[in-house]
Structures are given as C-alpha cells and as structure tokens.
Fold these 2 entries.
Entry 1:
Amino acid sequence: MKIAVLTSGGDSAGMNAVVRAVVKVGILKGCETWIVREGYEGLVRGNDHADGSYPEPPTVPEAASEAHHGHPTNLLANLRFGDGLLLRDGTGDHRGADGSGNSTRTLAGRYLVRVGWDDVRGWFAEGGTLIGTARSAAFRTPEGRTEAAFNLIKEGIDAIAVCGGDGSLTGADLFRAEWPSLVQRLVDQKRITPEQQARHKHLRIVGLVGSIDNDMCMTDLTIGAPTALHRICEAIDNINSTAASHSRAFVLEVMGRHCGWLALMAGLAAGADFIFIPERPPDAKTWEDEMCETVHRHREIGKRKTIVIVAEGAIDGDLNPIRVDKVKDVLRDRLGLDTRVTTLGHTQRGGSPCAFDRILPTLQGLEAVNALLEDTPDTPSYMIGVRENKITRVPLVEAVKMTKAVAEAINNKDFKKAMSLRDPEFAQ
Ligand code: F6P
C-alpha cells in the first residue's frame, strides 16, 4: 500500500506528530509513505512532471536511508519552518528543500513527496504543520477533485490519511465516495489506462481530527486542543499577577468558533469569574445583571482581580454575539472596575505541542494506518478518535453529521440539544 498523509484546515499543535506517526508506522508495516504539501491544494496541483515519471528523491546523500527499510529519504530531513516548503505557483524556487540552492533538490512544482524514516525525525516537537496547509477552493469543485485523483494515481498512491477539522474530513469522505466516478472520468479522458483503473478501484481514506477548538463530536479530544488550553492557562496565569496588582478586571477572548471547550476548561484550570460559551448562551436581557452580581459577590469576599472569559463564538440567547468590548464597558460602568481586554488570538494555536498532543497523535497515527490497511469499499471511512482514554474508530460521516447538528441546534436556539450532542452524559 502507498499511503499519503496531508494536513488541512487551520493548523494545530500535534499535526506534525500525526505525519511522523503515519510515516513511521506505515514504513514499519511495509507501506510506501508520502506527504502531500499544502493540504488538498497540493493534491490538486500534484507533481510537475509531464511524463508521469516520478523523479526519485534526488541527491540523497545519507546511506542511513537504506537502514530504514530501504526507503528513499532526506528530501525533507532537517527542514524547519519555511525551508523550501512554501506554497509556490511557479518553478522559480531554486533554493532547494535543504536551502542549498541546489535546484535538483527543490520541492517547487512538487506537492506529493515520497518520504522516509529520517524525514520526520523529531517532528513531534514542532508546532504548526511542517508540510503546510491551505484552504483549497479548487478541491471543492469536481474538476479539482478529478485532478487530485489523477495526481494520486500518477504516483500510484492508494490510501490517504487526512488530519484536519470537520470541513476537511467532510471533503475526505466525499472524495472517497466519488472516487470510482472520478477514476472513470479519467479513463474517459484517456488520462489513465484501464490497468490503472483496475488497480485504483478504491481509495482508502482515514481521518484524524486536528483542531484546537475541540469541536468534533464522537471524540473526547481533538489534536491540538490540549496545547491551546495550556497556552491559555499560561496567559491567564500571567494576567492574574498584573490584574491582582492593580485590582483590575480582564476580559479575555479565546478561540472557539462554535465550541466553548477552550473557554470552559480554561476557566476551570486557571480560574475565571464568568464565562461565555456558544453552547449555553445567557439570557439576552439578563446576562449583564447576572455577570455583575457574580463579579460583585466575588469582589465582596475579597478577590482583588476579575477574569471573564469569552469564547470567540459566544452568543446570547437571542443569538447576538457577546462582544468583549461590551463586556468591558459593563464591568467598568456598572461596577466601576478598571477593565482591560486581551485577545489571545493565534498565540493559542502556535508553538510546540504539549506532551499529550504528542502522545495522542502518535497513538492515533498507529490506529489510522491499521484502519487504512483494513479499509475496503464495504467499510465506512473512519475517523480516529479517543473515548474514555481509548483510541477509537468511528464512521467519519456520522461524526461530521453530529458536529454539524450541534451548529444547527445552536442556530435553532435549541441549546440543550447542542449540549447533549456534544456530551451525551449532559442529557441525563
Ligand atoms: O478552527 C480553529 C480556529 O482556531 C478557530 O477557533 C478560529 O476561529 C479560527 O481557527 C481562525 O482561523 P484562521 O485565522 O486561520 O482563519
């Protein structure tokens, strides 16, 4: 089996550990391993070699490659951010993957790259995604997906592991479902042979969830969420000392477009007086009173500081967004608190993964390769999750459907349903 791994959607800490795990486990299980640069966009762009022949990873110096199952290696080895891995349209990039200026090693015009053991060495400690991610408009079109199919077949790849959020995983499932028709179209266009069609009847796909928001149903945790939470806690710890010094209030905006997990958990882990989350919006008419009463009570018992956390997607019961500036004004005007706003932004998303965001992707990467090896046209495409500390496989479509149902329930003001879908125990 030839496996390609790609990362898609917003980056999250732990995505590199996914790539590392899929590549290493893949090699150990006798597969050929590839990465796709720049997510689905890379799949659509493919490799720029007209005759369909893949230029074997050129000028591979290390004899070490042979030591690892004979895999070609080191095209990517020792790469760090931006080293020749940037998305480029033309062929003008001749810096080479190793920054050497040796054009034979450049990755320009090549989005699918065969990788070996050494290429992913130490990747679990790196933040972001070293193979890049991009929002691909082209992949959303049937033409784009036909190109993607062609590019995979051209390289003989028959399995892909996708690490991304719900949108990315929906794309993966659609791609797998329409694969036979895409392949037929390529035969009709005489771009692939009937032999290639016979060999690529089915595309094996598995999804791993990379999202700092922890916003996917049917899994307890998404890759990157623990690290983001850790960043928020550190930020609140820092803010606490300055807030207490001046006896100030701080309103913190944290990420979480449709999900309040980061806000809620940060409130528990670092302490907050009041929290706003999308799944449990406060009454539009009374939230100001409610917040002021709570903060006032805490002040009365001697607190010198006030922390209010607002999830990015927080709303009130009438679906109006809760704005941090509005919260600040209320605290200032009604309680006379000297109040500041801090928006943590992308500091939550970047940086080195915490230990759990290395362990989880490593264990899930192993399960992902197993799922790919067992994938048949009769099995559903799986999403690898974690439930009660056990690595799980769940049908990808169901998880995505349920995640979308949460957003729908919120839009319909059925907040109880939204919470129950997120956490089945909430319903009891
Ligand atoms: O989906 C993760 C997330 O971090 C959201 O919380 C946030 O709204 C969004 O990504 C921001 O993404 P970007 O800046 O890449 O558009």
Entry 2:
Amino acid sequence: AQVWNAQELEARWGGWWEEQGVFRPLDDGSKPRRYVLDMFPYPSGDLHMGHAEAFAMGDVVTRYWMQRGFDVMHPIGWDSFGLPAENAAIKRNAHPAEWTYKNIETQKASFKRYGIAVDWDRELHTSDPEYYRWTQWLFQQFYERGLAYRKNSPVNWCPKDQTVLANEQVVDGACERCHTPVTKKALNQWYFRITDYADRLLDDMAELEGNWPDRVLAMQRNWIGRSQGAHVNFVVEALQGTGTDGEGAERTVTVFTTRPDTLYGASFFVVAADADLAEELVAPEHAEELAAYREQVKALSDIERQSTEREKTGVFLGRYAINPLNGEKLPVWAADYVLSDYGTGAIMAVPAHDQRDLDFAKTFDLPVRVVVDTGEEDPAETGVATSGEGALINSGPLDGLTKSEAIAKAVEIVESAGTGEATVNFRLRDWLLSRQRFWGAPIPIIHCDACGEVPVPEDQLPVRLPDDLRGEQLAPKGQSPLAAATDWVHVACPSCGAPAKRDTDTMDTFVDSSWYFLRYVSPNDDTAAFDPDAVRRWGQVDQYVGGVEHAILHLLYARFFTKVLHDMGLIEHTEPFKRLLNQGQVLNGGKAMSKSLGNGVDLGEQLDEFGVDAVRLTMVFASPPEDDVDWADVSPGGAQKFLARAWRLAQDVTSPRGADPAQGAVDVRQTTHRAVAEASSSLDNHKFNVVIAKTMELVNVLRKAIDSGAGAADPAVREGVEAVAVLLSLVAPYTAEDMWHTLGHDDAVLRAGWPTVDEALLVDDTITAIVQIKGKVKDRLEVPADITESELEAKALESEVIKGLIGDAPVRKVIVRAPKLVNIVV
Ligand code: ANZ
Ligand code: ZN
C-alpha cells in the first residue's frame, strides 16, 4: 500500500502550479478582484520561522479567496536596499549587490518549496534600477509640490558609525547597531513634509476602524499626536540688541499650551536650551553659563531629556517674560526638558498642575500657585502636581469656571487682546529621508552654484549607483560613501551647463516600501511608476499581512504616499490597506528565538524533517493568527499523522466522480456541510486554527464511515473527502493537490471552488436546551431546533423538575434564548 510521504509529494507537485499558472490572476474582469499582500521580506539570508508563520497566514487568505471565486493577486518582492548588505560588503570587500541578489536566490527557492501561492511574474526588487528609477521619480514629484525640502537642523548622529539615525534607530539614547550614545549634529538634510498630512492621516483612520487591529490604530494616533491648545504671546522685557527691533527693544515669545486655563498659575517661563531662542534671549552675564549647559545638553537623547527619573537641570537667562493676562513678570530659564522641535520650543511653566514644571520648581526653588481646586492636597507640599477637574481659583476673570469653561474663556481673552489664539499642535515631525549611506536610491538632485537645487531631468532617470565601489570604500566616513566616487559626483548642471555636483545622500529604505504595493499592479511598466488603470482595477490592498513591528512608521509612510498620489490625481483611493492582520511571533520555550539564548529553530531543518505541509499546518493550527506560536509546545509530528490520515481517505474512496451525494448517508453529509459552514465563518473572522479543528473532526467521521457503514463506495463519503481536500488546500498544498488528483480530478485543487453548503443539512432536528434557575443549570430538554421563544418558555415552566424546584415562589423574570437556553429568576 502507498503511504503519505512529504518528500514524495513535494517532488511530485513542486513546480506544477507555476507551469499551470494557478497562482497568476486573470485580470480580465471575469471575476471580482481581491488583492492580498504580505509585507515584503528583507533578503537577509534564508527564510526563517517568522517568515514561515507570516506567509502561511497570508496564504490562507489568498487560497480561501481563490476558492471562493475571486481573481486574487498575491505578489511578492524584496525590500533589497539597506544596511546589512552594505556591512556585509564592507567586511568581504565586495559590492552590496552581490550579497543581496545571492540571498534573494536562496530565499526565493525556499519560498517556492514552501508552496506560497504567489504570482512570481510580478516579483520586484527595490534595488533594481528599473524600480528605483520610479522611487526617484516620486521624490521629484514630491519636490515639485514642495513636499520634499532640505533644511539644516539638529539630527541624531552616531559618532561611531558616522551617520544620521532616524528616531526609531535610537534605542535608549544609543545607536541601535553599535550601542554608542547618540548625539545631535546640525546637518543639512532632506525631509518629506508629512506634517502637511497630519490631519488627514488622523481623520482617515475612521475607515480603518474595525479593519485594522485597535492597538495599531492607537499607536498611529499617538505618533501623530494631535493636541488641542493655544499659542500665547509673552513679551520678554528690556532685551538688548535684538537685530531689527533695535536697542532695548522688546521681543515677543510665543508658547504652546494645552492648558490656557492655568495662565494665572504660571510662575516661570522656559525655553529649550538647545534652541536658537535661548542664545538670543540670554543676558550677557549669563551667556557663558548657557553655552556650557548647551554643550552638556547636546549629548542627550529626547527620551533622556524627558525622563522623569532625571534631576531637572537649567540655567536662568537673566530675563523676564510678561504674562499677557495679569502682567506678572516671570523669570525666563533655559532647560533641557523643553524640546526645541515641539510646539514653539518655549513654555509657560505651571508647577501646580504640570509634574515636569513642579520638579523643576522644586529643584530651583520657584513659586507654586494652585489655580484649579481639584480637592487634592497642595502640590507644593506633596510634590505631586494635580491635573484633575475642579473650579478655577486665584485667576481673576476665570474664577469659579470649570476647566473647560476656563480654557474657552482664556482663549477668548487672549484672542480679543491680540496676544494669542487657539491652535492645534502635532507630535508628528517631518520625515528625515536622507542617509549618508551607499546602498539606497540616490537622491536625484544636482547642486549648482548658480542654479541651486536642480532635479535630474526625468529622461535621465534613474541616477544609477556607481558599481565600482568596494569594501572599505563603502564604509561611513561622516559623509556619504558616494562623495568619494568623483566621476559620479561631478556632472554638468542640467539647467545652465556649468560644473555641478550630484547630491551624494541616498534615500531611507522606508521610501522604497512606501509605494511597492502600487508597483505590483504593473511591475514591468517602463513608462510609469504604475499604470493608473491597473491601480483602478485592483484598488486597495484588500488584506495586508505583516508584523506589528511595522505598526507605526512603514504604515504611516505608506498611508502618506497614498494620499499624495491621490492628490496628484494618480489613484482614486486614499488609504492603501483596507484590512490589516498582524501575525504573532514564533517563540521557542516561551521566548523569542535569538542567537544569545541559543533557542533558534532552523526552518530548513523543520521542513526536511516534517515536510512543508506539516510545518505550515502546525503554524496555522497552533493558535489564531494574531497570537504567538511556541514551537516548544506544538507537534509537527502530530500534524504529519493527521495529514497521512486525511490523504489515505482519498486513496480509499471507490465511488465514481459525479455520484449523487444525496443518495448517501445523511449523517456523513451533515458533518461535511457543517464543517464547511463553520470553516467559512472562521475564515471570515480570522480564526484559521478553527478551520483545521473542523477538518480534523470531519476526517474522523469519514474514516469511521469508510471502515463501517456504507463504506468507501458511499457518494456522501466522496463528497466529504473532496471537501477535506479543498479545506486542506488552504494550508497543506501538496497533500491537498495529491488527494484531489487521486480523487480523479485533472485541474488544480485551488480551482475546485469552495463547496456549496446545503442549509437544510445544517439544522439539527432536535437540540438540547438548558434550563437554569438564577443562572444555575437545573434541567435539560430535547426541543425542536426551530422552537419559538414562547414555546420554549412554556416547556421550561412545565418541566416537572423545574416545577418542583420553584414550588410556590413567584417567578420574577424569565430570560429565553431559543433554542438553547432558559433562565428563570425567582
Ligand atoms: C502650561 C501647562 C499647564 C501645560 C498644565 C500642561 C499642563 P502635549 O499634550 O504633549 O501636547 N509643552 C509645550 N511645548 C513643549 C516642549 N517643546 N517641550 C516640553 N513641553 C512642552 O503637551 C503640551 C504641554 O506640554 C503644554 O501645555 C506645555 O505645558 C508643554 F497644567 O502649558 B502646558
Ligand atoms: Zn546651474
């Protein structure tokens, strides 16, 4: 007798699906379209367990929608620019492309073995000139619209790696790669003006509600950080020599506050120590002290600066700011806990109601004045600022008002006096996109002494990376390695012809991944980044699948790009990803796999030992897709046994194709139709593990039917086994395909179509209803499945058991949930 053998099945069907074009969408309008996308992999080496988990989940959705009759596009590509390739090249005296494309070949072979239903014809690499040409083109579109610009500003700088770091690359104040403390350095860098889209990035989240995980929406919202508040102007007195204002002139400094109601509680004024403003305001006798303090602040990260654990530090500037509401003079300080790039970089300090201000006031012995009576103890005594609701006190015209009334009133007063206005402030910063690195898309700008910034003409794109730099030449040296490629750098200005220089920075790889989902619709188009008609046909990504580590930046940037492209009139939709699924992690022994713990599991070894199908099935069966899978707790060996059992069913069926299942055993048919119905609803609710549980139940019933009953010749058994093959086609492609062909079909099982459920087979004739008294189960009744609420109530109250228990006690309430439950309250 034949036995189920994973290697044999993989050899038999590997490559066949691609030959048959099973994974390629028709794109001819004959069926409704669906677009499924897994976040594309970085080609760091071979596939690992994390990929295996993520892609197994995305594939369930893809294959299910294919079976349901959709024309599904499920593409794959490679996020193939980035630092690891550059580091490997430096170490091996090679070019980053060598390492990158070799890894891609390895990973690609593994993906094919893993049987993912992707259309390989759409494969893309972000490091191909055919791709980055359009990344550069998009940069220029942004540039023309004023959405890409250069500015000189302090950026995170790793003194060891000699490169700029994005905020997310700074972990606890240190470089995430080499752990060197990060400093700030003023540099001229490129930015995307994502802050122009802050409101829309927030507001459009309404349409994602319920379709994206709540925690991801919360993280996006928090990152954008909209604060409702006011700008209030303070006049800083007797300031000498402020340029155009002349000698002795006054100078207005604006603060951002979310609590204008507390204006009467302001007792000092603070500007960010690292802001130019601090230097402009400082009185000459304090200038030296400030300069020393600024040096000290430079070395700190924003996180350290805002830490509540650190002792507050600061320098008095010898100036006073006048409170526009009551004319009070507030001493002006410079401190590091106020950030230069948030709000206006200056605050009015209200120590009674803001903990940071209170800590500062305690350190420097500054006054604390309560202006909101919250009923709590005096902050000056307790050291705890109060932020609750209460009536205003010590606040002149605001006295007696509630917090929100006082906010409105204070805004009204400053607005009518012309000393302030209501405003909205965002935490979101513009996106710093330039990197002093080699392996990325060159910024397509030429710098000319006469003309300034000149975009490379469109017909000269792509600006290709030079291919003659190797090893040490790629190492970071405080400026981009491209600066050393002299032949490459020196060009004629496209505008005036004079000698000019290329921009030597490359783009953050997040730029590449902000539009790749659009490229897939027309991956070989060499006339445009994407074909707008094709984008219209496919629309949004219907289901996006990827890790929660991308919950903020990648998704935010992709959303931003989508909105800009919409505004350019190139696409209709404004959100890229309709539904988002964050798959869990694969752990081992309850912990993330890591080299240092030595608990890594090698995917290749698992596949060799158990076969692709058993590994995939184990991933999906372990838990709902969002939950982590602990590889120490699962049993790929058990999955193998189950697959072998399912596979044997197909070998045993003897009834011919097309036999009428209605002639077969009804109980077998009921199990089949119930399994399919429950699988459908579980798939719609992303409970993929339940699908497997239902399939297992069905396999058991079919085995029994074959071994006894009407046996292998029963057409109801054939119907059931065909359903098993279709259900398994979502997770165990090799086994399912083989079963399908054993059952006499020639076409791919993915083209079988989802079994049609006969509703009549779903209803049980009778059902067991539970009768409770005050929530405790007291009796069980066999009732018709379609019993009405009033019939069920009557039956319950007539039950001898229940009558005996209730006795003479009056029935106060009867809750009925037909056909399953009655709860009587006495
Ligand atoms: C007075 C005040 C009184 C404040 C009070 C708070 C409570 P969010 O909600 O995060 O927007 N602030 C403004 N700019 C700042 C900066 N550059 N660095 C550090 N802190 C800054 O916070 C806004 C509040 O944070 C502002 O409202 C300001 O303090 C402070 F009982 O003004 B508040
Ligand atoms: Zn020029």
